[in-house]
Protein 1
Amino acid sequence: MMRKVADCREWPSENNCSLVITGTEDEVVRAATEHAVSVHGETDSPELREQIRAALKEELVLQHS
């Protein structure tokens, strides 16, 4: 299963937030939405959740040999 990443540094922010959230897509959308509401003053809405989902990236996994 491919893990997803939401990185607050990729969003405009007055407090220069550096939080990174990693997990399954649903976990990350849920956690990132809660973070956006509690820290950044956003309103929880289907539109916010869709914006977050659209901005997710796949986690890069480095293989050590």
Note: The chain has one domain: 4-58.
Protein 2
Amino acid sequence: MDKIKINGEFIQLDKLLKLSAVVQTGGHAKFLITSGEVTVNGEVETRRGKKIYKGDRVQVEGELIEVI
């Protein structure tokens, strides 16, 4: 499980994925999100701009990312 610390109140889903080691480019993040391959707190999320807050858990390509 990756833990990513954010400084503000929230971060957009596509930006969070780019910070993780799972996704290297914004295009790859966009593809995964719009293809329905990303879950936020257990629910499929297809919006790139979805606001992710501290405590949220994002899963993509078998990797779990926890926002702290």
Note: The beta strands are 2-4, 10-12, 38-40, 43-44, 51-53, 57-60, 63-67.
Protein 3
Amino acid sequence: MAARADLDAVRAVANAFIASISAELREISLQIHAHPEEGFSEVFAHRLITEYLARKPQVQVAPSKDKALVTAFVATYDHSASRAGANHGQDAVTTIGFCSEYDALPMGHACGHNLIAISGIGAFLTAAHLAEIFDLPVRLKLFGTPGEEGQGGKINMINAGDFADVDFAMMLHPGNIDLAHPTYLAAQHLDVEYFGKEAHAAASPWDGINALDAVVTAFNAIAHLRQQILPTDRIHGVITHGGAAPNIIPAYTRAEIMVRSERQDHLQENLFPRVLACLESGVAATGCTMKTGTTPAYADVVTNVPMTDVYAHELLVQIGVDVGDPHEQRSVSRGSTDMGNVCYVVPSIHNVFDTGCKAEIHSEEFLAHAKTQEAHDKTLQRVACLVMVAYSLMTDADLRSRARAEFAKVPKPKTK
């Protein structure tokens, strides 16, 4: 393997480089925050990031292999032909991927994806700098992953083969706490429509078929189901269309539902079919017809322990943050992410970091905080820790072996 430099010296080089690009990253973050774009429509953010990366030496920027993902990209830095690589052969070359997100919620960047964008960029460029300074045989990739908020851009990129040649992957997510072992639930988004028949609600209600009764029946059935599910399961939804007027029997209703579980196999094989049965109860009770649609399912995040142990150690060494007991960290769900799907195809980590905001994400308070100098500074502090995970993977064959062995234990999804 490539020789390891003194870790304090490596940290010093990494932090100095991060400081040198901090102003550039800050401007990108602020621009993305000021121009929020929802999933698969991130034209401004995509152009801003890719033009910035294209100006960096030895960085090649290409579109996703999924040509429909026009706001996705893959940036590559290839140092595999270094002297260290020549000495140790191609087997010594490791490919490490970082992920950036930049889509917004309807309320704006209340999930801090402007910070996720620059964390990925910063880690990618800093790791490239370390590879050059210490002459390490490595290929680095930065994945620009659109549509994380529900559309599953990473899933599309996985299916297209963008992650096919990656050995390890990592990213950071902002929050109000530092977590090296976060719990992200598997999730399935479900749209349901009921079709009935209009009638005058007072003069001839018997001539109608009530689509509102169908969706209400379904929601009541789900409410009863909640008594019989695991404490880690979640079912929640909204009725987006409930009818046109109170004196008309509604002929059409629509709802959106999210079903989540701690593991994707339990979600698909147990919980989701039971939720579908609740929706079908609305059909049985009213005589309506029903149409359902789903988006790609998000897998649960399977944290690679050897990789995240390095990150946790760096948090303690570099900024004095002790993340504590892994079991306690896993006790609180952080929601769902399509990074979970990446975790099932390559050893990965998806660490949460404290931005200094006490409010939870998806709030007006977090939206305002995501553009502050404090949030920026804390983001780059964690970037410096994440980069040391990449450096360790580049230089420590034992870590690579342990990370791969841990990944081999991850149960692979069943194919239908």
Note: The longest helix spans residues 7-34.
